[in-house]
Amino acid sequence: MPTLPPGLTEWLPTGAVIGFGMFLFGVVRADLKAMENRLREDMKASEARWREELKAMDARHREDMKALREDNKALNEKLDRLLEARFSNQPVVAPDR
Question: Which residues lie closer than 8 Å to 92 by C-beta, 6 or more apart?
Answer without folding.
Answer: 82, 85, 86
